[in-house]
Design a protein that fits this description.
mainly alpha, Urease accessory protein UreF, 67% helix
């Protein structure tokens, strides 16, 4: 029997849809520079980059703090929620990653406020990270934390795969293979995020940090990060 806490609610499918108007399609999270530098050139290297940064960076920083944000929202602890959001914002390692996060967070928060989500209305005008805005949406529509985190991580993978298909000319079948390979990585990432102690939380993807910083001066660009 499936645990109801692990079920995927329909509201989550809407939140992870590429049609969500937050501008995710315009960012590559450093992948564009990685392709320019020859670090990512084919399906295998794209999969290594996408899934490696997801598990070793996103899960250990964004995922762990998102998990705590969901708990803070459940406890109606506004101050703790904002403290966690500030912690996550401080972990952005380049100007482009910071702007990407803020712009997507602002777009989602504005959308949620327009949809009369109380948590978003209270914070309208605030600068939140995208995971924080996503947590507000998931909490409002009663998406269980584990399912919400899986959804958030899925959006990262799907966006990166879409970028890789443009940057290194991967076919749709190759993109689907990467998405299929992402399933156990997301499961492990969620398990890691749920169990990290505070002093274990942190971004450890040096290559992504360097790529996103160098991307700022890259001559020819398709993406904003």
């Amino acid at each position: 029997m499936t645990d109801h806490q692990d079920a995927i609610p329909l509201h989550l499918l809407r939140l992870v849809s590429p049609s969500l108007p937050v501008g995710a399609f315009s960012y590559s999270r450093g992948l564009e520079y990685a392709a320019e530098a020859g670090w990512v050139t084919d399906e295998a290297s794209a999969q290594d980059w996408i899934l490696g940064t997801l598990e070793e960076s996103f899960a250990r920083l964004d995922g762990a703090l998102f998990w705590r944000m969901m708990a803070a929202l459940a406890a109606s602890d506004h101050d703790e929620f904002l403290r966690l959001d500030a912690w996550l914002a401080a972990g952005r390692e380049s100007r482009e990653l910071q702007l990407e996060d803020r712009r997507m967070g602002e777009a989602l928060l504005t959308l949620l406020a327009d949809l009369d989500v109380p948590g978003a209305l209270r914070l309208r005008g605030e600068q939140l990270t995208y995971p924080a805005a996503f947590a507000i949406a998931a909490h409002h529509w009663q998406v269980a934390p584990a399912a919400a985190l899986k959804g958030l991580m899925w959006t990262i993978v799907e966006g990166q795969v879409a970028a890789a298909m443009r940057l290194v000319r991967l076919g749709h079948t190759a993109g689907q293979r990467i998405l299929i390979a992402a399933t156990p990585v997301i499961e492990r990432g969620v398990a890691t995020a749920r169990t990290l102690d505070d002093d274990e939380i942190g971004n450890v993807s040096v290559a992504m940090a360097m790529a996103s910083a160098w991307h700022e001066t890259q001559y020819s660009r398709l993406f904003r990060s």
